[in-house]
Amino acid sequence: IGEVQGWLEQHYANAIVIDELAERAHLGPRTFKRRFKEATGETPLSYLQHLRIEAAKHALESTRRQTAQIIWDVGYEDASSFRRLFKRNVGCTMEEYRRRFSYVTPQRSKPQLATSNSRE
Questions:
Q1: What region does 91 belong to: left with phi over 0, alpha with psi -120 to 50, or beta?
Q2: Where does residue 32 rank: exposed (0-12), middle (13-18), buried (19+ CB within 10 A)?
Q3: Where are the domains of the chain?
Q4: Among 89, 100, 101, which Cα is nearest to 48's?
Q5: Domain 2-101 architecture
Q6: Is the CB of residue 73 less than 8 Å from the CB of residue 65?
Q7: How confident is the model over 88-113, as pLDDT tens digits?
Q8: What is the widest separation between alpha-carbon atoms in the chain?
Q9: Number of neighbours of residue 51 by Cβ within 10 angstroms
């Protein structure tokens, strides 16, 4: 189970199939799910969701990437589904989380150079 956890931590953004994780652990799917929960306290799916949420939180804190891009980068294709999952687990929206915890300064717009209306 530890090896599967390590693999998931490296590949959480990939499309993950529980039966393939069970094969990786050399177990049947039902046995794998039971042993995974015994070892981690979470189902394989909730563990994967937790990894993806943590990766999204890190990206929100440390980058200016758009939230839709972050959602895609962590392995979700359905943005609204991930936004609901994020809010349910973190307690705020992705945008609120970024405002509270980002340590990247917002990009400021460059000052406009004054143009002269005088004729030469």
A1: left
A2: buried
A3: 2-101
A4: 89
A5: Orthogonal Bundle (1.10)
A6: yes
A7: 999 999 999 999 999 987 665 555 55
A8: 83
A9: 20
